[in-house]
Amino acid sequence: MSSLTEKDRPIVQLLLNAGTCPRCILRFCCVGSQVLYRHPHKDLMKDLEEFLKTNQGEEDTVCLGVAAPPCKRIRLEDGEEGAADVNHNGAIPQVPSADSGNAATESSSGKVCNVCLGILQEFCEADFVKKVCQKVNSADYQFTSFVFSVSLPPQLSVRERAAWLGVKQEMRNLGLPLAKDDIVQLKEAYKWIIHPQLSEELGVPADGKSLFEVSVVFAHPETDEECHFLATACPDCFKPAKNKQSVFTRMAVIKALEKIKEEDFLKHFPCPPSSPKKLCDALEIQCNNGAVFVAGRYNKYSRNLPQTPWIIDGERKLESSVEELISEHLMAEFKADSFNFSSSGREDVDVRTLGNGRPFAIELVNPRRIRFTAEEMKRLQQAINDSSDKIQVRDLQLVTRSAIGRMKEGEEEKTKTYSALIWTDKAIQREDIAFLDDIKELKLDQKTPLRVLHRRPLAVRCRLIHTMRSEYIDEHHFRLHLKTQAGTYIKEFVHGDFGRTKPNIGSLLNRTADILELDVESVDVDWPPTLAD
């Protein structure tokens, strides 16, 4: 906008009379200059007062034109097609005099805005900005930029519609057209005002792509029930949802406002809306950092350690897990709220993972610290390894979210190498097991094992044993080295799981076989990258 013009006069006059703040008036006059909204509240009120005092028919130049980027708009109502800026005899219609505007200005300046409920008044001031920044600084986050978000009470959408309908009615009475331009969103105007102040106070730029979010949640209990009439008019828009305390969410209210007829709205709500007694409450000022991802490989040397906490019917069976032994150090160093652990497959509690280890990744949620040097990551890895003889970690490094996908890509096409200690009921000689070495690409049909049927769907899975190499120990024991398709149930391949895996070592040897020990010797996933020692 370059300046307020004569056609804006009735909008300014009407909204000032109704108790609307200067910044909301600029929004309804479609002013798109960001800098104008940053002018002090008192100066803006004075400018509007001067504007109403100017002779009708003259362009006001109090609000200086400032170039600004295109703004986001919210469409409330289009003007009538073909409408002109003058009445039938070519003259600008008369609007209320500047004298009546003075009274409105004086009374409005001390009121809570009837549209924004004070958000573009008190919550744009330096004291509130300092309060937000104190909250951010006390939370002790590392960040190089920020994105600011605001949650508004849903009834603000109702009040905005009511104000617009009031403006629309006034313009019709005066024979003036409605501009096709749309009003500036309250959120957008608020960010125009507060972004520079936050940026200066925090010493970092505002960036819409930043992973560090500063958010403010506003509420206005005094007007909470103003949305309720919409539930009667548009019941389909208000359906209970999980994790929602109220059906009157902002999106549900907006949806209802799009559906309700204008005449029905006017029956239930004053246009323009009345002024409230109290300002909005800033219920919460929150900070949140985007997740950080750490990857590596782990070796597991214990036969009494689950990968993840082993809890059955609410009772913990073992005191620790691979996940916990690794994550407790990461949580402490990154100062995160929580974590999510994932890996390339998993081993049973009594299975060791040897060789180059199993790839894993940990998502650290809302970390306070996000920057670590390679040397610091090495020290963190060493701290994990020094804390327990049950596991060891290698190649610990920071990775991106998208990189984690490589750990899961083609998971079933990957290969894994195992070493199994096998017992047989009947005595064996070396020649009895030698033929196993010649078997290549053995196809298995594995029905979901009984031991995991409680957490896995019943299905028959086709798997491959690529190669086998036997190592004779004594008449009842031998070790079998296997290279298999990922996802193969090795224990069931040995003992047959009551015929649910076919063929199996027992059926191949024509005797009962069972597995005594199992080790994972390698997981052939080329991720994460190997780091130099």
Automatic annotation (TrEMBL):
The keyword ATP-binding does not apply. Residues 293-524 form the Pus10-like C-terminal domain. Its main location: cytoplasm. It is an enzyme of class 5 (isomerase). It is found in: Cytoplasm; Mitochondrion; Nucleus. Pfam families: Pus10_C (PF21238), Pus10_N_euk (PF21237). Keywords: Coiled coil, Cytoplasm, Isomerase, Metal-binding, Mitochondrion, Nucleus, tRNA processing, Zinc. GO terms for biological process: tRNA pseudouridine synthesis. Its EC number is 5.4.99.25. GO terms for molecular function: metal ion binding; RNA binding; tRNA pseudouridine(55) synthase activity. GO terms for cellular component: mitochondrion; nucleus. Residues 113-287 form the Pus10 N-terminal eukaryotes domain. It catalyses: uridine(54) in tRNA = pseudouridine(54) in tRNA; uridine(55) in tRNA = pseudouridine(55) in tRNA. It comes from the Eukaryota. InterPro entries: PsdUridine_synth_cat_dom_sf, Pus10-like, Pus10-like_C, Pus10_N_euk. The keyword Coiled coil applies. PANTHER family: TRNA PSEUDOURIDINE SYNTHASE PUS10. Belongs to the pseudouridine synthase Pus10 family. NCBIfam families: pseudo_Pus10arc. This is tRNA pseudouridine synthase Pus10. The gene is Pus10.
